[in-house]
Amino acid sequence: MKYEGMIFRPPSEAESLILQVTVGCSYNRCTFCGAYREKTFRIKRFEEIKEDIDEISSYSPRVKRVFLADGDALIIPQKELIRVLSYLKEKWRGLERVGIYANAKDILRKGVEELEALKELGLGIIYLGLESGNPEVLKRIKKNATIEQLIRAGKRVKESGILLSVTVILGIGGVEHSQVHAKDTAKVLSEMDPDYVGALSLMIVPGTPIAHEIETGELILPTPFGLIQELETMIENSHMTRCFFASNHASNYLPLRIQLPEEKEEALRRIREVLKKKDPALLRPEYLRAL
Ligand code: SF4
User: Fold this and answer.
1) Class for domain 11-288, per CATH?
2) Pocket test for ligand 1, best of 26, 32, 33 (most atoms within 8 A of CB)
3) Is 33 close to ligand 1, i.e. is its CB under 6 Å away?
4) Residue ranges of domains in the chain
5) Whose CA is nearest to atom 8 of ligand 1?
6) Residue owning the nearest CA to atom 4 of ligand 1
7) Could you report the per-residue pLDDT of 249-275, keeping only the tens digit for each?
8) What is the dihedral of CA 37, 40, 44, 49, to 10 degrees?
């Protein structure tokens, strides 16, 4: 398998075979993201991808899950993606699910029918980075999508029947936008109505534009308890029909794994208890936090 550079995947794809079909991120300019800064974006040729699939299938006859890397692999033109998914299906008859990262524009470039066609071929989950539902914050972090586009993209995935997993980032609005970021994000999540939400806490990657904003004092990070207050506001104001909400990513101070709406009240009770005690011993220690 010929991986180029560092490979990232969602925590829930830990058991999946990671197949790199693109290198880097086609946009690569979000101010907080250092994942693909060193890579020059390109879509791998089908022959390269096929070579990797052939190699793995020669010693792994049974693969159940595949995750297509890197940053926004859904940018691959429909015909090419169909070719990759068809080949995966041909090689592994028992393949249950293929996952992929996508940004809003990648999704909106495809119609519902095109997404449905990908679903038929095994694409089972799309991971979309929302980060914030606040327009000012999105502009500041150079997300390259409007709220309206993000909502439309999320709804389109849902309409196609593909599972939608959305990432949001606690602390990304700084102290200044802390609560409005949490409220607006809850509002957008409620409109998208995703199947999964993954809440991360902002971790500063050296050399990124956001690291510079912090150095110059342009952006002030909320305290760990400030981040938990954002989590409280986000959960309190979210109204999803059926969603698994997780804040168990290694970057978070308070790990939660809850089914919404069923476990909302219990989660809020737990969060409020932590906020009332303000005891740092109740939080994940700083040295255990990671991206
Ligand atoms: S957050 Fe996503 S879209 Fe933004 S630069 Fe990183 S990989 Fe690309």
Assistant:
1) alpha beta
2) 33
3) yes
4) 11-288
5) 28
6) 30
7) 888 889 999 999 999 999 999 999 999
8) -40
